[in-house]
Design brief:
By secondary structure, the chain is mainly α. The protein has one domain. Helix content is 75%, strand content 0%.
Length: 200
């Protein structure tokens, strides 16, 4: 069922991780029933927020992106999320050997995909791109995402909780490195002329 695990991951994560593990979801099914839909929330909300609502930095002047620029950035953001989920899943699969977790690649990608659920949902905040508000609301979401990771790794990877803690920490580090790489790529793209175009 499409998006069937969203509520469970938010309300009773440990039980839901066990259900997800039993399903043995394929990569295609995981993407089609979860990632493709939820990963669209941040880019769509971001597009509306940056082109229709706008934001203020210091002055009272409202800054907005042109619809074309907003669409280009939203499309790249969506593609980046899809690639990041696969990449982190692949790295989880690769690191699994170190921690004695020999799970199929599809299980590792499912772990990456479902762990990011709160982040996908929090993308709705981008409808109103106010930096301090987004940070204030985003920090608890980020904390719950980390909690989901630490809860999900031992269950999905079939390893003891103590080893799962170390594995989760390694996955968290990989996620942070991936984020830094995406930010660096964004700066490079903006520098070569693929940056935002402001309206007016």
């Amino acid at each position: 069922m499409v998006l069937s695990h969203v509520w469970g991951l938010l309300a009773y994560p440990e039980k839901e991780w066990k259900t997800i593990r039993k399903e043995s979801c394929t990569i295609g099914k995981c993407y089609c029933t979860h990632v493709l839909l939820l990963a669209a929330i941040p880019p769509i909300a971001g597009y509306i927020g940056t082109t229709q609502v706008g934001w203020q930095v210091v002055s009272r002047e409202v800054h907005k992106l042109t619809p074309e620029s907003g669409l280009w950035i939203a499309g790249l953001s969506y593609l980046t999320i899809l690639v990041a989920v696969f990449t982190i899943g692949k790295l989880i699969h690769w690191m699994g050997q170190t921690y004695g977790a020999k799970q199929p690649l599809s299980q590792c990608i499912a772990l990456a995909a479902y762990t990011a659920t709160p982040l996908y949902l929090s993308g709705i905040m981008l409808l109103y791109p106010l930096l301090w508000l987004n940070l204030l609301l985003g920090l608890p979401v980020l904390a719950y995402t980390v909690y989901l990771l630490y809860t999900g790794v031992p269950i999905m990877m079939g390893i003891p909780r103590e080893r799962g803690f170390l594995f989760s920490t390694a996955v968290l580090a990989v996620g942070l490195v991936t984020l830094v790489a995406v930010l660096a790529a964004t700066v490079i793209l903006w520098d070569i002329g693929a940056g935002p175009v402001f309206a007016g």
